[in-house]
Specification:
This protein is an alpha/beta fold. The protein has helices spanning 26-37, 70-75, 94-107, 118-122, 124-130, 143-154, 198-203, 233-237, 246-260, 276-289, 308-316, 331-336, 343-355, 373-389, 406-413, 422-427, 446-467, 470-481, 487-505, 509-514; strands at 3-8, 11-14, 41-46, 55-58, 63-66, 83-87, 113-116, 136-138, 165-169, 172-175, 215-218, 221-222, 242-243, 264-267, 294-301, 319-327, 359-366, 393-398. It folds into two domains: 3-175, Rossmann fold (3-Layer(aba) Sandwich), CATH 3.40.50; 208-400 and 438-466, TIM Barrel. The chain contains 20 helices and 18 strands. It has a seven-stranded mixed β-sheet, with helices on both faces. It has a six-stranded parallel β-sheet with strand order 11-14-15-16-17-18. A three-stranded antiparallel β-sheet has the order 2-5-4. The protein starts with a strand and ends with a helix.
C-alpha cells in the first residue's frame, strides 16, 4: 500500500480580471477516491481550501494568488509520502506551479513527482525538458493511470511499466503504451470530499456557479464530442462524450444533501447537454424524486438539444442558471473555429430559455486569428439582439492560444507564437484582464481589440438595463445584501472580495523585496 500526496496549487487570477471563482477541487477528489478504492493511502493538500481568503500578489503584482503560498503547500507534504502528484489545467498557472514543484523537490528530494492536466498533456516534452524535478507526465484522463502508478511504486516496479505516460529515460524521454478513455464512467468512485476542507467551501458560499445555497460540484458527463479549434479538449479527452446514468447522478446528489446539507449543485461538465433524451430523463427523475434542490450549468453548454420544452423541464426540475457558449456572432468565424452552431437555432434556444425563467449567460470570445473588425461588429450586433431578448449576463474573453488546441499548433507553425516561456504563459491570462490585451489578428491591434471588448460590454448591459430597468436596482440590491441571482452578481462580489482580502493579507514577500 503506497501513500500518495496530491497537491492543489493556489488559484491564480489576473489582478483586474472579472472572473476567478474559488471552487472545490473536484479533479483531485476524483483521483483520491480512485486511489483509495484501490487500497492506497491518500493526502490532498488543497492549496485553495486551506486558506481561501488569503490573497497575495505575484509576478510584479500582475497576478493574484488565492490560498496558501507555494511555500506553505510544500511544507505540508508529509515525510512518509511515496509519490507526489500535481496537476496544471490552465497554462497561465504553469510558472507558479513549476516553482511549487521546485520547492517540493528541495523539501522532499527522494520522492517521485508526477504531473498531469491539460497543460502538461499538451506540452509534455517541454514540461520534462524545463522541469527536471518531474519524473513523469500523466497524459489525458488520470484516474486509472495514477492507480497503476501507485501499484507500480508499491511493488517496486518502474514508472515506464504504466501506460499513458511520458517518462524520463536516462538523458531522454520515453512514451509508454497509449491509454484509452475510461468508458464506464459510472464505475469511477465518487469524489473523496472528506480529504479536503469541503465544509469551508460550503459554509462560505464558495463555488463555480451563482451562490444559491450550500453548493456541491458535480460531473454528469465526461468529454465533449466537438472539435472547436481553440479548445484543448480533443488533446486531453479525445472527442468521446460519455454520460453517466442519470439515476447514479441523482443518488450522488441525494447523498450530498444528506451528508452536507447541500441545496444547490454546480455541474462542471465540459458539455453537459448533448443528447436530448438524456437531459429529459434526468429532469424527469429529479421531479419524480421530489428533491427540492436547485442546480446550475455554469460552464457553458450547447444549444442543439435545448428547445423550449427542454428549457421548461430544466426550470421545473430546479435548474436556475445556465450558460451558453456561442463564442461569436459571426457565421464566418464560427465556421473557421469549427463551432458547429446555427445562429438562428441558437438564438431560438436562448429566447426559449429566457421565456422559461432560466437566468441565462453567454460566453463570447473576441480576437480569433484572422478575425476582422466587421466580424467583431457582427458579434456586437448579436449581443445587442440577445440583450433585447432578455439574456441576463454575458462575458467577453479575448482569444488565448491554449497549448493543445488546433489554433495553437497553427500559430506555432506560422511563427506567431514565440518560444514557450513564462512571459508567454502569463500572457494567456490576459483573456480575462481588462488592463491588458494580446491580439493574434493582423486586422485588429491589441488596443482596438480591447475597445471592441469594452464596447460589447457597454452595449449589452446598456441595452439590457434600458429595456429592463428594474434589473439595475436588483443588481445594486443584491450587491448590498451580498445575494446572488446572476453571474454578474457573482463576478462583482468575487472581485470586491478579492480586493478586500488583498488589502488584508498584503503582497507576497518576494514582491516587496523586489520593489
Amino acid at each position: 500500500m503506497a501513500k500518495i500526496t496530491i497537491l492543489r496549487p493556489p488559484l491564480l487570477v489576473p489582478t483586474w480580471s472579472d472572473s476567478g471563482p474559488i471552487t472545490p477541487p473536484i479533479g483531485p477528489a476524483y483521483l483520491a477516491s480512485s486511489l483509495r478504492a484501490a487500497g492506497h493511502r491518500v493526502q490532498i493538500v488543497d492549496g485553495i481550501g486551506e486558506n481561501p481568503f488569503q490573497v497575495t500578489t505575484l509576478f510584479g503584482e500582475t497576478v493574484l494568488a488565492i490560498g496558501l503560498r507555494s511555500e506553505e503547500i510544500a511544507e505540508r507534504v508529509e515525510a512518509d509520502t511515496d509519490l507526489i502528484g500535481v496537476s496544471c489545467m490552465f497554462s497561465q498557472d504553469w510558472p507558479e506551479i513549476r516553482r511549487l514543484i521546485g520547492l517540493v523537490r528541495r523539501r522532499r528530494p527522494g520522492i517521485p513527482i508526477i504531473a498531469g492536466g491539460e497543460h502538461v498533456t499538451a506540452v509534455r516534452e517541454f514540461t520534462l525538458e524545463t522541469t527536471p524535478e518531474i519524473d513523469a507526465c500523466v497524459l489525458g484522463e488520470g484516474e486509472e493511470t495514477l492507480v497503476e502508478i501507485a501499484d507500480a511504486i508499491d511493488r517496486g516496479k518502474k514508472l515506464d511499466s504504466v501506460a499513458g505516460m511520458l517518462v524520463r529515460n536516462g538523458d531522454g524521454f520515453r512514451f509508454t503504451e497509449p491509454r484509452g478513455r475510461i468508458r464506464q464512467v459510472d464505475e469511477i468512485p465518487t469524489p473523496a470530499w472528506d480529504l479536503v476542507p469541503i465544509r469551508t467551501y460550503l459554509d462560505h458560499g464558495l463555488g463555480y456557479g451563482v451562490h444559491r445555497g450550500r453548493s456541491m460540484p458535480m460531473l454528469a458527463t465526461r468529454g465533449c464530442p466537438y472539435q472547436c479549434t481553440f479548445c484543448s479538449n480533443p488533446e486531453m479527452w479525445t472527442t468521446r462524450w460519455y454520460p453517466r446514468d442519470p439515476a447514479a447522478v441523482l443518488d450522488e446528489i441525494e447523498s450530498y444533501h444528506r451528508e452536507y446539507d447541500a441545496t444547490n449543485f454546480d455541474f462542471y461538465d465540459l458539455t453537459a447537454i448533448v443528447k436530448r433524451e438524456w437531459i429529459l430523463d434526468f429532469t424527469r427523475m429529479i421531479l419524480e424524486r421530489g428533491l427540492g434542490v436547485t442546480w446550475q450549468l455554469p460552464s457553458g453548454t450547447r444549444s442543439e438539444a435545448i428547445d423550449e420544452e427542454v428549457s421548461r423541464r430544466l426550470y421545473a426540475s430546479g435548474c436556475r442558471n445556465m450558460s451558453y457558449a456561442p463564442e461569436s456572432g459571426s457565421p464566418a468565424v464560427l465556421k473557421r473555429i469549427k463551432k458547429v452552431v446555427k445562429l438562428d437555432r441558437l438564438e431560438a434556444s436562448i429566447r426559449g430559455a429566457v421565456r422559461s425563467g432560466l437566468n441565462v449567460k453567454l460566453n463570447i470570445i473576441m480576437g480569433f486569428p484572422d478575425e476582422t473588425r466587421e466580424e467583431l461588429r457582427a458579434t456586437i450586433r448579436f449581443l445587442a439582439r440577445m440583450a433585447f431578448a432578455g439574456v441576463h449576463d454575458m462575458s467577453i474573453s479575448l482569444f488565448s492560444p491554449y497549448p493543445g488546441s488546433e489554433i495553437y499548433r497553427d500559430l506555432r507553425r506560422q511563427g506567431k507564437i514565440p518560444e514557450l516561456s513564462d512571459d508567454f504563459f502569463l500572457g494567456l491570462g490576459a483573456y480575462k484582464d481588462f488592463a491588458q490585451a494580446v491580439s493574434y489578428s493582423d486586422d485588429v491591434s491589441p488596443r482596438a481589440l480591447n475597445r471592441y471588448r469594452i464596447l460589447g460590454f457597454v452595449l449589452f448591459y446598456g441595452l439590457e438595463y434600458l429595456f429592463r430597468p428594474w434589473r439595475v436596482f436588483r443588481l445594486l440590491a443584491n450587491l448590498l445584501r451580498r445575494r446572488q441571482e446572476s453571474r454578474l452578481d457573482k463576478s462583482l462580489q468575487d472581485f470586491v472580495n478579492r480586493l478586500r482580502n488583498r488589502r488584508r493579507t498584503g503582497s507576497d514577500p518576494r514582491d516587496r523585496a523586489a520593489a
